[in-house]
Design goal:
Glutaredoxin; globular; Thiol:disulfide interchange protein; disordered N terminus; 217 residues; alpha+beta; 5-stranded mixed β-sheet; redox-active center
Amino acid sequence: MKVLLKPVLQAFALVAILAAMSVSVLAQPARYIEGTHYVELDSPVRTVDSNKIEVVEIFWYGCTHCYSFEPLIENWEANAPEDVVFVRSPGMWNAMMQTHAQLYYASVELGVFEETHSEIFDEILLRANYLQTEAAAKDYFMGKGVSGDEFDAAWNSFTVTSAVNRANTNMRDYGVRSTPNLIVNGKYRIVTNQAVPTQTDMLEVVDYLVEMERSSM
C-alpha cells in the first residue's frame, strides 16, 4: 500500500506546486497599466487580418515627431514577429493633412512608396515644400519619374479615395488627436505622456500588448 501511495502523493504535490506557480504569476503586477501607459478603446476596430496581431502607426508627413520616429518604427517593423502585421495609417483633421494622406496612398498605388516615403518627410519638413495641393503633389511625383497621366489616374482613383476615407474613419474610431499614435490589434492606443516619456517607451508598451494579445489568441 505504501508503495502505491507514494507516486500518488508525489503527483498531488506536483499539481499543487504548479498551481501555486500559476497563482504567483497571475498575482504579479502588470508591467504596464491600462489608463496610464495605454488606453483600451471603448469598441474594437476591425483589423486587416484577424489571424495576425495588427500594429498601426498613425502618422502625418508634416509632423516633426513622426519624422524622428521613422528610424525607430522602421527598425521595429523589420524585426517584427511573423504573427504581427504592421500598417501605416495617415492622420487627418484638416485639409492639408487629407492631401498628405492622399499623397501617401497615391505613392503606394503608383508603386513608389519605398522610394518616396522618407523623401516626402524631407520635402515638407526640411525643404518647406508643403505639398498641400494636387498640383504640388503632381510636380513632386513627376520629378520621381511618374507621368502626368499615371499621377492623375492614381490620385483620383477609387483605391486611393477609399483608402483615405477608411483611414479617416479608423482614426476617429481610434480616438486619435495627435501624431504619432500606435494602435495594437484595434484595441489599444499608445501615445507619449508622463508615464510613456519617449518613443522607445511607446514601442516597449506595444511589445507588451502584442504579447498580451498573443497569449489570448
